[in-house]
Amino acid sequence: AGIINFCANNYLGLSSHPEVIRAAVEALEKFGAGLSSVRFICGTQSIHKELEEKIARFHQREDAILYASCFDANAGIFEALLTPEDAVLSDELNHASIIDGIRLCKANKYRYKHMDMQDLEAKLQEAQKHRLRLVATDGAFSMDGDIAPLREICQLAQKYDALVFIDECHATGFLGPNGRGTDELLGVMDKVTIINSTLGKALGGAAGGYTTGPKPLIDLLRQRSRPYLFSNSLPPAVVGCASKALDLLMESNAIAQSMAAKTQRFRSKMTAAGFTISGKDHPICPVMLGDARLASVMAEDMLNRGIYVIGFSYPVVPKGKARIRVQISAVHSDEDIDRCVDAFTEVGRKHGALR
Ligand code: PLP
Predict the structure, then answer these.
(1) Are 253 and 64 in contact (CB under 8 A)?
(2) Is 278 a known active-site residue?
(3) Fold for the domain defined by 16-251
(4) What pLDDT score was predicted for residue 355?
(5) Which ligand 1 atom sits closest to the C-alpha of 97?
(6) Cβ of 94 less than 6 Å from ligand 1
(7) What is the pLDDT at residue 1?
(8) Which of 31, 135, 177, 336 could form a Cys-Cys staple with 332, CB 3.0–4.6 A?
(9) What average pLDDT does range 251-256 have in this prediction?
(10) Annotated active-site residue in 90, 142, 278, 313
(11) What positions belong to coiled-coil segments (predicted)?
(12) Whether the predicted pLDDT of 14 surpasses 80
């Protein structure tokens, strides 16, 4: 009782939104508990097609394809798209699912230093000998709350004739003026070719993932992508949640804006209190502490004060860069944010993180 969750990916608070819950119940009642099938056998209902159309419309892309998770979407795309004659260039801090997806494909692999455009350019020059080049990056990186320099990435991609892929799990629904994501935020919606994202974070938080992009690519994935072909279709209730979440976001950007204001409140108050918060303007607010034990005891003490946060240390983050990752949500009130900052200040003083 009285514990506030500051470590969920529920950025917009939609997992407890009454309309989202009602949509799930209605879909469950009307379409059943599940399809007992993959999509291409008897696992496609009208709501699956409608959700794919809605996702494509939301991102202003030609088509979309659903997966059981974004992990699956990332596992399924590189192998289906790239051959041994092609190349994939990946940011060294990309999410594990991108790394695993790339491992599964036979393309030539290049890893560039985190958000380092000089290194990316050098790798693109090296990769000119291949038939096709794909640059793959997280839009927003979940450990640091930093945002990929997509404008520069797209310029380089244009210069060296490469495609751009972004994973928008920590951006869809809230980054950019209309919550379309990192590509909207940085004004490159027409330059990014492929987007993978999740329905399991801001878009209702249930489960599911997708790829959206050019129609021929989506057609190819329906024919060749193994997690799509060989894994069960999304349950109707999950489809209902995500579909309603997208409706709410396409009607208004008020929820995303309220989350942004709360993020700003938390970041500025914590910085004023003397903490270092990594990243910029993102609801992932890593409170940098350095020492792994300090991060863990502080997180424990925060819970004693009713604030649920988790310490991250090696091997999840580099040695010496332990932190408590705070995630802001639209459901937090200003009082919740202030209570969290007060608890951090008390606990930080007690454990010597603040003087
Ligand atoms: N990509 C990124 C950047 C993520 O943070 C996550 C989830 O943690 C995933 C992919 C996987 O998403 P899902 O939970 O839908 O499999």
Answers:
(1) no
(2) no
(3) Aspartate Aminotransferase; domain 2 (3.40.640)
(4) 80
(5) 10
(6) no
(7) 58
(8) 336
(9) 94
(10) 142
(11) none
(12) yes
